[in-house]
Write a structure and sequence with these properties.
Layout lengths: L3 E7 L3 E8 L5 E8 L6 H11 L2
Antiparallel strand pairs: 1-2, 2-3
Length: about 55
Amino acid sequence: MTKFALVGDVGGTNARLALCDLASGEISRAKTYSGLDYPSWRQWCASTSRSTR
């Protein structure tokens, strides 16, 4: 089973997040999210958890 880590850079304006394959170090599914669209981490989690299943 492939293991992934959620990696990213969360700042005041944007959050840049991606998945990293722990065995190979390959980065995939990188996306940038605007802080204006998701005022809280909880709102981002609720929104994106539905779209990634």
